[in-house]
Amino acid sequence: MKVVSIPKKVNASVVRLVGGQVFLLSLLYIVTAHPLIPVFLIADFAVRALGYPRFSLLARTGVILSQVLKLKYRPIFFTPKRFAALIGLFLSSGALVLALSGLNLTAVLVISVLGLFSFLESGFGFCAGCKIFAFLMHRGWIPSKFCEDCAA
């Protein structure tokens, strides 16, 4: 029986395409306030935060798009991206809880933060979650054992 492993590196081109999809979904939520959008985002972020991006629908779509667009494979460490997915999971979960509580404007504000982060990732390759991860590692709040390559 083959055990599914957590990747050490992922393709930065695919990550940026995933960011673009999250940005578009965030915009769609801002326009429609449909609660299934954060539900979908929660599920997709959870899969990636657990360390299994190959089971993420957004990541699979990103892989297909990168092949169609013939984008270069650019390997980057997965652990900071996994941390960023955890932030996305918290933001989309918070938005859903707020929306279901009737705090729709606050839910839109939270999704807007997620949309901004994903726009920065997609458009500029700037990962806010990765920067937070690096800051926490340098402060010693995240032990280097979680990403020995990142600590070097």
List the helices and strands and how they pair.
Layout: E1 9-11, H1 12-32, H2 36-49, H3 57-68, E2 75-77, H4 78-100, H5 104-124, H6 128-138, H7 148-151
Antiparallel strand pairs: 1-2
Keywords:
mainly alpha, 152 residues, two-stranded antiparallel sheet
Tell me about this structure.
The longest helix is centred in the middle third of the chain and has 23 residues, at 78-100. The chain has helices at residues 12-32, 36-49, 57-68, 78-100, 104-124, 128-138, 148-151; strands at 9-11, 75-77. The chain has one domain (9-151). It is globular and about 45 Å long. It is built from seven helices and two strands. It is mainly alpha-helical and 152 residues long.
Q: How much strand? A: under 5%
| Helical residues, percent | 55-70%
Strand count: 2
**Unreliable stretches, pLDDT < 50, 5 or more residues?**
none
Helix segment tally: 7
Overall radius of gyration: 16 Å
Question: Per the principal axes of the C-alpha atoms, what is the gross shape?
Answer: globular
Straight-line distance between termini: 34 Å
Largest sheet: 2 strands, antiparallel
What's this model, at a glance?
Helices cover about 70% and strands about 5% of the residues.
